[in-house]
Amino acid sequence: MENRTTIQVSEDLRKKLRIIASKRDISYQKLLSDMISVFEELDKDKTIISIPTKLSDKIKEKIKDTDFKNVSEYVTFILRILLYEKADISREKNTNKIKNKLKELGYF
């Protein structure tokens, strides 16, 4: 027998989950399965970010024949690039400000 954990869900929460499932046009069981897969992917060093489904689908298509395992990995990669470039730009601006100040003071 496989290991099982029982989680008690209040009737109020169960109703809300059924409403969410119906809005997504999926079964309650599929919704629970999706939720479990999300929690399995998470660890204490990650968070969840929502993006539109159409955008996610486009990313999935774009990364189909790449080394990216999933949308999350790709988005993380892109965000790191953007943040790094912004940091470089800020560093460059600060360096230029310092050089200009040193020129004004006669050091260059």
Fill in the keyword field for this structure:
elongated, 2 domains, mainly alpha, 4 helices, 108 residues
Strand/helix succession: HHHH
Count all strands and give the number: 0
What separation lies between the terminal Cα atoms? 77 Å
Total number of distinct structural domains: 2
What is the residue-mean pLDDT, rounded to a whole number? 81
Biggest sheet, open or closed, and with what strands and sense? Answer: none
Shape: elongated
The tally of helices reads: 4
Class from secondary-structure proportions: mainly alpha
User: Which value, in Å, is the CA radius of gyration?
Assistant: 24 Å
Strand content: under 5%
Structure description:
This protein has 108 residues and is mainly alpha-helical. The protein is built from four helices and no strands. The protein folds into two domains: 46 residues; 60 residues, no CATH class. The radius of gyration is 24 Å and the shape is elongated.
Topology overview:
Layout: H1 11-23, H2 28-41, H3 53-62, H4 71-104
Provide a compact summary of the structure.
This protein is an all-alpha fold. It has two domains: 46 residues; 60 residues, no CATH class.
